[in-house]
Amino acid sequence: MTTSAAVETPEKVRTPAETVSGLRQPTAQERSEERALLIAVLLDLSLALPYSAAAIAIGSLSMLSEVLRGTLLLIVALVSLQTLRNLHRGRVAAYEYGIGKLERGLGLLIGALLIMAAGFIAFHALTRGGGEPKSEFWAWAAIVMVVYNFFVNVGPIIPLWKATRAGGSVIVQAQLRAHIAKAIASFPVVVCVVIDALSSNPDIARMADSIGGTVGAAVMTLIGAGMIRSALPDLLDKALSEPVQMKVNRTLATFFHEYDALLGMRTRRSGNTAYVEITVGFEPERSMADVSDVLARMEAHLRAEIPDVDAVLIARAHS
């Protein structure tokens, strides 16, 4: 005797009102996530060319490092936006268990790119710096660009944060952390580029440029390492955290007298979804209706305890 029951995650639920031409229509929350990420991408694109031109003209290591980091993260942001759109429209039917690992993988990629950019910055900060002669026009152009860049990095933080308050996609959460990292790292760049651009002393200009690069590298390394650390457990199928595991145990305890044996349990987390597989034993003489009723109520209890749960309950004969 074997039966199973599965609790669908919200992203798998389909109703006629939500489906057009076989595709799921995004909810208001999902559209806000897409809008927040799109704003961040458009702001970055608006700055790319003028900022790069000013960075090359002034020869600032701090600015050139931001060009490198910004370009890499912009590519990831574009991929993230397209992935998010596919996810919200149900274009992931080939992935039976969702794309939580892909979401975490993108977060891991963002973290890795931050650390790579940090290594590049740190190396050049220790071996060279700014301080090259520069025209007054490009000096002021560089100052305008770094100030504008700071506000471009800060601007998307609020809409991204609002989009993650209700849980939100792991992709959006990763982009929020990335923009916080960029905002924090770009502030010392503003200070150091102003000193570098306006100082008539090459040694002071070079020192300011090196300090700006070093501080930015340290901030990116810390945040990038944190993003990698948060992504690895899901990618390696780590079991649920203890508080969530306790909620699963609570369900088992609640129905302890309604099944005859606990034969096995496996749990893991992928993205925002908790996957739970429970195998329970029932005496062979119990009816299918009785067993199905117990499984259905256990399933409902799990969903109430853990909203983002994908549960599979398996019943086996046990004597």
From TrEMBL:
The chain crosses the membrane at residues 36-61, 67-84, 105-125, 137-158, 179-198, 210-228. Residues 37-236 form the Cation efflux protein transmembrane domain. Pfam families: Cation_efflux, ZT_dimer. It is a multi-pass membrane protein. It is found in: Membrane. Its main location: membrane. GO terms for molecular function: monoatomic cation transmembrane transporter activity. Keywords: Membrane, Transmembrane, Transmembrane helix, Transport. The keyword Transport applies. The keyword Protein transport does not apply. InterPro entries: Cation_efflux_CTD (IPR027470), Cation_efflux_CTD_sf (IPR036837), Cation_efflux_TM (IPR058533), Cation_efflux_TMD_sf (IPR027469), CDF_Transporter (IPR050291). Residues 257-314 form the Cation efflux protein cytoplasmic domain. Residues 1-28 are annotated as: Disordered. SUPFAM superfamilies: Cation efflux protein cytoplasmic domain-like, Cation efflux protein transmembrane domain-like. One of its GO terms (cellular component) is membrane. Belongs to the cation diffusion facilitator (CDF) transporter (TC 2.A.4) family. This is Cation diffusion facilitator family transporter. It comes from Azorhizobium oxalatiphilum.
